[in-house]
Design a protein that fits this description.
This protein is an alpha+beta fold. It is 30% helix and 33% strand.
């Protein structure tokens, strides 16, 4: 359905020393120029399909025990403070379950993947991190 502009014209006329208002509505069939960008598909939709597999760890499987919450919070805080990381890297999924951390999601570069993995290993221990980050590039 096309957007159409509506033009309203108003005029005031003098009749026998008094004023009378005159109003006219005119529907104008010219379409409104809609330069809004068209939505694009998410670039990680394939990854999201992979997460539907019951064997894949997902964020809703993270436990709410204090130690796992603290571990996820510590890793997230470290990543958020690192301004050299891309928006993708700041938004990776961090899943902690009984002290084991899984990292998932897209990142821009291999260096980001390694940096995030190193931060998670620093917090959880080298043997407790499963780095499933995917390098997407630009």
């Amino acid at each position: 359905m096309k957007n159409h502009a509506l033009r309203i014209l108003a005029a005031t006329v003098s009749v026998s020393g008094g004023l009378a208002a005159f109003c006219c509505l005119q529907a104008w069939a010219a379409p409104v120029n809609d330069n809004r960008p068209k939505p694009t598909a998410a670039d990680n939709s394939g990854v999201n399909r992979r997460d539907r597999d019951q064997s894949e760890p997902t964020a809703d499987q993270a436990k709410n025990n204090h130690s796992d919450l603290q571990l996820m919070r510590e890793i997230r805080r470290t990543l958020a403070q690192d301004k050299s990381l891309s928006l993708y890297a700041h938004n990776v999924k961090i899943i902690a379950k009984r002290g084991k951390v899984t990292l998932k999601g897209p990142v821009k570069t291999q260096a980001e993947k390694e940096k995030i993995g190193a931060q998670a290993e620093k917090a959880a221990g080298a043997d407790n991190v499963n780095n499933l980050l995917v390098v997407k590039g630009t």
